Amino acid sequence: MSLEHTELHEDGLPGHESELEPKPQWRPRYPGSERLKNKVAIVTGADSGIGRAVAALFAREGADVVIVYLKETDDAEKTVSIVEEEGRSALALEGDLGDPDFCRYVVDQTIDRFGKIDVLVNNAGEQHPDKDIREITVKQLHRTFQTNIFSMFYLTQAVRPHLKKGAAIVNCTSVTMYKGSGELLDYSATKGAITAFTRSLSENLIGDGIRVNAVAPGPIWTPLNPFGGSSEEKMEHFGENTPIGRPGQPNEVAPSFLFLACEDASYMSGQVLHPNGGVVVGS
Description:
The protein is α/β, with parallel strands linked by helices. It is about 40% helix and about 10% strand. A seven-stranded parallel beta sheet has the order 3-2-1-4-5-6-7, sandwiched between helices.
């Protein structure tokens, strides 16, 4: 199922990782220990960036991975090959997660292929820099919320009947939810909504043994920012204002998703991890 997306965006987002230099680091840094052995994980935005690194790490840890992406087929095919090189199965599905019908399709295809769903990673997102709130169009405002938070509702609604005790949901929020961003007003607002959604969904599902947590990355070197997600001025010094003094790499963020997805985090729900380069924020 492939939907037409080109009319949805006012820029080239999310961008092709295959065209990005230097290439983001997605490769897992250590051997696997079967922490997700025989699990099935849906990872949205898994064609590139953080999503690709999560897919690679999950596969190394024993999971089959459903790779959901918007339109970068070449990147998605690369992620499929990464998962398969780890000895696991991959299924790539192209479409718009802002469409509840597509979300139901993702779940149907996952069940048809693998028979179950153990982990849902809601990672897909988009952002558009605007220094003046008056520059944010109605179309952009609606689209950012549709992609970043509505999609999490839609996909979680579709997945919910298949989640059993021990399942995990991990959402991607952002450091901007905690410290703000003067040029990402709509994006930051969605990330605040994602954090609230995470905490509330945890309260809703924990009684059934389903854990819900989130990860709030700082500036990470992915296609999203250099291909239009940040202004040119910001990109000149991207990540340099963190205490560590550089942007993070996707494979420095993926272990946070793994920890929250596996039994290592069995006593954690409603929480947020902060791989952000040393920025101290309220949790």
